[in-house]
């Protein structure tokens, strides 16, 4: 008899056996990573009460702190962010129930607009593979009552509330970052809405097979900004001063990171930083991410007269990323669009 947990696990080793049996490749990666010392860090922690303060000086200081973290780290944490901690806890509870569904059902049931993803279909080597599963859901699809069966109707309702709260926070942060550069705070509101943004529910199963396996391979985000809620297991790492550092989880904070589009729009003032997830050998890890994206035909300009980048649309950017991943196994991203 197959246990519930076993039945729900994606068949990584069976499906990708050609990648995992390449022991010589694994040994090469192990030798390479033995020289990498990953230290734990605490991201800049910003209290967003300053943005709502009636004191102009406090608000100005808060905006400057957000902008500094976006330039120096590309990542920061926020407290008093306006997303209910009770709601986030309910989301985590429903998310766990969703991933405990048998694997075959997750693949075939078309839950949440057929948004289930697992592994990395394009991977040809271990360094291109991600040991994770996810539901990558367009916000516009969450409100559709037929996006979930009756068993997960409460999940859909909670996701709607989360999406609304995350959208408000994302637009607030994008607005103050634009304001810091002298532009109207509402300049992203028209192009980034429910029809263009996404919510992604992630699960990283325990991985004792190989310590070099990525939960999510190194990448930058192809959006304006991302808001992340992670559990206390840890595993998120980012590149800081040419070294990988591990992000220490904070149960009361949400993590925010700058995406490629904001780096291009700000003319490299704000930084889209490479990051990855390393799975735990014994514990499963859950996270949830909100992606602030424009429509595919939106032109990504810049905030200065002399731009480092060619003018491109989000659709052109996404197409180039997909072509690069298909040909090389890795995303190239912004360097493709430098003048």
UniProtKB/TrEMBL annotation:
Coiled coil: none annotated. GO terms for molecular function: gibberellin 2-beta-dioxygenase activity; metal ion binding. Transmembrane segments: none annotated. Residues 193-294 form the Fe2OG dioxygenase domain. Its EC number is 1.14.11.13. It comes from the Eukaryota. It catalyses: gibberellin A1 + 2-oxoglutarate + O2 = gibberellin A8 + succinate + CO2. GO terms for biological process: gibberellin metabolic process. The keyword Signal does not apply. Its cofactor is L-ascorbate. The keyword Ubl conjugation does not apply. Keywords: Dioxygenase, Iron, Metal-binding, Oxidoreductase. Belongs to the iron/ascorbate-dependent oxidoreductase family. GA2OX subfamily. PANTHER family: 2-OXOGLUTARATE (2OG) AND FE(II)-DEPENDENT OXYGENASE SUPERFAMILY PROTEIN-RELATED (PTHR47990). This is gibberellin 2beta-dioxygenase.
